[in-house]
Amino acid sequence: EVHLLESGGGSVQPGGSLRLSCAASGFTFSTYAMSWVRQAPGKGLEWVSVISGSGDSTYYADSVKGRFTISRDNAKSTLYLQMSSLRAEDTALYHCAKTQGVVYDPFDIWGQGTMVTVS
Amino acid sequence: ETVLTQSPATLSLSPGERATLSCRASQSVGSLLVWYQQKPGQAPRLLIYDASNRATGIPARFSGSGSGTDFTLTISSLEPEDFAVYYCQQRARWPLTFGGGTKVEIK
Predict the structure, then answer these.
(1) What is the pLDDT of residue B48?
(2) Could you list the pLDDT tens digit for every one of the 107 residues in chain B?
(3) CB A97 within 8 A of CB A107
């Protein structure tokens, strides 16, 4: 069964840093681009970043560009999001999502998310 | 960026009724429009990709149509488990963007 499990969320002060992880199982991780999508409490979905299967290509939302870094370890089937210079508006549930293939493909599998609170 | 506007914000319907949800893009996205369903406390689920293709395991009562800037998600006959929030997302241009969502609630 395909499964994504996020971890690393928590409470942090403005200006602080946090690293999120997403452990994948049930599929050949290196074959698929992976993404982070966040959801502020009671709000809609906001795409954050995506990385290609090889890790060579990355894209970011303007709201996080220069502050967040997406990466992956294909040997460990794990996706990461390094977040720095955190702001109150970064408070959200962060989901990792598997794409159907390449960086702009739809998200066909989602994790339950890990909560980040900046306060 | 490509802004997606979903309407209505809330749709109040009874089980068995037909639901019609709209998603309008601020510029053409071709057919590269995706629909997701999200229930309270759950992760989103892929419903429709590229405007009209049902994802694996999605019932036939869900259908999508449209191209360019105007898209529609139709649920032909609402089942109790269909009451949820629905989001559209475009994958034609960076940055990827989502609509604000339409909540389908029980009348």
Answers:
(1) 98
(2) 999 999 999 999 999 999 999 999 999 999 999 999 999 999 999 999 999 999 999 999 999 999 999 999 999 999 999 999 999 999 999 999 999 999 999 99
(3) yes
| Spatial distance between the Cα atoms of A74 and A101, rounded to a whole number of angstroms | 15
Q: Which chain A residues are within 8 Å of B36, Cβ to Cβ? A: 45, 107
Burial A85-101 (b: 16+ CB within 10 A, else e): ebeeebbbbbbbbbbbe
Residue A103 forms contact with B (CB below 8 Å): no
Query: CA-CA distance, A44 to A108, in Å (whole number)?
Result: 18
User: Please, which residues 63-92 of chain A have a Cβ atom closer than 8 Å to chain B?
Assistant: none
Instruction: With beta carbons under 8 A apart, name residues in chain B contacting A62.
Output: 1, 95
What is the 8-class DSSP label of residue B82?
G
- Name chain A contacts of B89, Cβ cutoff 8 Å: 45, 47, 106
**Which residue's structure tokens are 């890790």?**
A55
Do residues B23 and B71 make contact, with C-beta atoms less than 8 angstroms apart?
A: yes
pLDDT in tens, A5-31: 999 999 999 999 999 999 999 999 999
